[in-house]
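User: Show me an example of a complex going from sequences to structure tokens.

Assistant: Sure. Here are the input components:
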Amino acid sequence: MLLLQFFVTGVVTGCFLILATIGFSLTRRVEGFLNIAHAELLGVSAFTTWWLNAELGVHVIVAAVVAIAFTALVGLLIARVIYDPIRARGPAVLLITSTGVAFVLGGVIDGLIGTGIRTLQIGLAHRYEVFGIRITSHQLLMVVLAAATSVSLAVFLNRTRTGLAIRAMSANPSLAASRGVNLSATSRATWLLSSSLAGIAGVMLAVVATLTTDLAFAQILQILAVAILAGLGSLYAVIVSGLLVGIAMDVSAFWIPAGYRPLVAFAVVIVVLVFRPAGLAGTRAA
Amino acid sequence: MNWPQLLVTVVTLGGIFGVVTLALNLQYARGGMINFGIVAYFAIGAYVYAIVTQRGPIGLDQYRFGFDWPWWSGLILAGIAALLFAALTGWPTLRLRGEYLALTTFAFAEVLHSLLLNERRIGNGTVGLANVDRPFSDWGPIEEKYVFAAAAALLLVLTLLAFRRLLSSPYGRALDAIRDDETAALAVGKAAERLRREVFLISAIPVGVAGAVYAMYTTLAQPSLFTAEITFFVWIALVLGGERSLYGVVLGTLGLVLFEEVVRAWPFETVRSAQIAASAEHVLTGLVFIAVLRYQPFQRTVSRLRVAP
């Protein structure tokens, strides 16, 4: 029974990982590089929510919406000012640059917020119990939000013109351009989309966790684990691999100390890279 | 500000991290391998040195091994351990290229960090190993810190000379050929795969030794000293110095260490202002990093002056 409880917690962790990773994978797919600073965008969103909610007393839903919008703009700004001018240097330089961006964002957050732990001004989570399995309302919200986000992203990418343009650009930028896709507008839309996805994940992070300024950077490890397992750049596989990593981390706590959770995540990654280097989706997106 | 003390610190830390940057330079600029987990080899060196030289566990110590061997055996074993760890991690990862390699090495470093943090039997877990053996404490007239600075500088110079020798040999030219055009190099019979693996192994040795010296210097081997931040620090130093030049790499490291030490040595009135300064240091480092990658100022100077190799 306890094992089942760990499994359920793992599903919730997995849902958070899906939210956190899907924007990262979208960037990788369309823009072609690994944006290490994506995790810091989670921090931007989480602390904006916290500041509006706990310091200024804004209602948490309003605060969350403003924080997500703000994060989307920050993401777009970074992309235009820093990434776009060096795009021609290739993915390795962009990857290394993005660690510099992560440093800057992390430093700014650290300097503005300071040390100590922070929590949102929201009520304690309501606890439900089904057949002895406990789940809180916050955890349920996480699952619902992950499902809703995944579905609406899929609908957006498949049913709207902008979504179609994003997919065309990710498949073949020059062909897309020659067929009349506005590349810079599409790139802007992608950045707004992936950054607001980071924003949603950041809000959820603020809801379920006590915030410290180094929390955001710690997420990049798990985001990378999920993204590699899915195969870099694939979106639908993120859902499966997010759940897999989440469950593997939490269920492993049944047998070995919980401190080993990141180790489990990366052990999964190493095994996958050795036996199936292109990830679960199996398409090489190099 | 205490300038002589600052200078000694910069030489010591610059020497230690300069070695790591040189190794990274060999892997990245010559071998084309992005190692985002270089801190792991550094940490292995530090821990092996600490374990080999310390006494057996007493009292509250939870570690299992302490051999109480002399310091030089610790140094040698630190280098060997880093080599073995590179062989272990290189075997599954070096088939991968580019960002996949970057991510796997990153993952390996995190796994090692998590292991050292949680497994108390290796090195006391979070607490780490304190009072690591310092060999130069009984050298009579010369003060210990100067001996240390000299030792770190010596290590740096030795690594620099060894790498320069290696790179100007036919072996080094084969490496350059592979980097510039792998297909052509394969066509004339250079075993690209094997050469890359050798570079990966060779460059791990000085990193392990540098880790051992770092453990001596701090007298600590503790997981919190060996985080991904060291990896990023070394990468920033590498990019600062211009990745193609060995001397530039050393200058970049010294410059970065100097910058950090000046910020740290600044007298602050309150805890809050010191903390803001620490974050400002992060922001500035990041901005310099981004700017250097974008404008590559040193690259051009280096190629104009033809500072070989």
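The lines above are the inputs; the final block is the predicted structure for all two components together. Chain B touches chain A through 41 residues (CB under 8 Å).
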